Amino acid sequence: MVKSAVHRNLIAIIAMLLVVFSMKAQDDAVTFEMKLSKEKLGINERLRVDFTMNKDGDNFNPPDFEGFRVLMGPSQSISSSWINGVRSYSKTYSYTLAPTTRGTVTIKQASIVIAGKTYKSLPKKVEVTAAVDKPSDEMTVDDVADESLHLVAEVSKTDPYLNEGLSVVYKLYVSPSISVSNYQPLDNPKYNNFWSQDIPVSRPMAENGTYKGKPYRFVVLKRVVLYPQKSGKLEIEPLSLEVTVDVPTNKRDFFGGRIYTQTNKTVSAGKRTINVKPLPEKGKPVNFSGAVGSFDFSVSTSKTTLNASESLQAKVEVSGKGNLKLFQLPEPNLPSSLEVYEPEFNENVRTTLSGSQGKVSNSYTIVPSFKGKYPIPSISFTYFDPKAKTYKTLTSDEILINVKEGPTNSSIGTAVATGGQKQAVSVGNQFNFLKLNPNLSPIKSNFFFGSTQYYLWLLLPLILIPIAIILGKKREAIASDVVGNRVRKANKLARKYLSKAKKELGNKEGFYIALEKALHNYLKAKLKIETSEFSKDKIATLLNEKQVDDTTNDGFIALLKNCEMARYSPFSEVQMQQDYDKASEVISHLDKQL
User: Fold this and answer.
1) 509: which of 178, 190, 474, 527 lies 20 to 30 Å off by Cα?
2) May I ask which residue range the UniProt record assigns to the signal sequence (predicted)?
């Protein structure tokens, strides 16, 4: 009894293992086959061909479909499910074909690689007869939608130079046989390695056109201008849309109207490859800053004759068509005797499908301090012209600034430009002659010892000792007073820098010129910087970084603003006195904090 029970259990276990191994073997078996919707059809009918596999594969290679015209495909579908613990998987590539000749036609083998092995389908024969009155296999709604809907990316140029503009226009082509009721983007391209500028499409309008020689309606969905920032082969990612399509059927409603069926389709523009050519190294100038296009270049000033302390504007401008937003403007080399402020950048550029066009400029505010003539040397600007395939250099004319009235620099005469360099002319006497007649008198005989002077000098050290002790204690007391020392030092420094401004009280122009220089010279002395290169915003930022309190910071900037406003607005003597007192206070506070 025991042995028979053991035998029965053993048989049951073996049977279960056989079932599991059988299921495993079935699950591991790879199938790849061709399925036809029919093996006999009229020449006016359609044939659907499915290539189905039970495992995912790569490198699908369809047959050439000789004797047929491909109407649609390949469309891909995947199904996966679990039934009673068994996984079911299917992947299908489908084609819709139209026969082009009568007779027996063979659809050849297709191949695919699954798990590193190549599998081939069996060839199948199809009999094509004369046209039938009622085709039994009309195209499905999805077939019609696939054949009648296309998203295309039209690229203006596929081989541009580095930084040369190109445009991409995305058009959705729709056959007149269907209608689109809605669409929405699924995936927008990111344009890696391109500088991009979208051109908004305010209201898409349907237009008539052709696609592959057939009449279509199309609508422009997206327009973008690209400037490649890297040479070599660059890919433009595809734009994908989900489109709701209304497809007519052969059915009619009660009133005889055609019934439409709605379906959703996903369309993609596909990847586009751009071959970007590098800019030639031959003939590339040293001052080339990356400008590509066709440009004009100019340097101008608002005036060429003025008085010291008045201001003028110098403008460096590039205009034309190209990558106007992607290069730096050349900088003028101005004489050091001119106060130059941070330039103001101006941009007036519009972008169309042909690229960016307009102008960009830097405006420099210049204030001469002394009387004289100051040259603004010529400036060169180089760009690459993609049409001429060569570099071009434009050079501005030299501009001479004539400062008629104002103080004269005591150490440096008028600056004369010679090859871009200034020559300093010394003024005043350079030699002092020795006096030839010294008017010396002979030394008289004198008895010093025992005289009154002798005893005074003898007692002098005894008198100086208590005085030295008193002075030493007073010096120690002063040295221990840290706060008092800082205040005294700050006041002394303020008086030093503001002494000239005080002398000019009552003379608005001279006072505010001296006050502005005092403020700038103070920062130069304390922070070891050239403040002529700083705007008010940068000075405020610098003081904040040095942990200067907001009240002192705002007061310093307000004084600089008053100095600028005084050139163009009337200021009373009372206002000048208030600004002088405020400057003394601000410098004193700054010195303690710095």
Assistant:
1) 527
2) 1-25
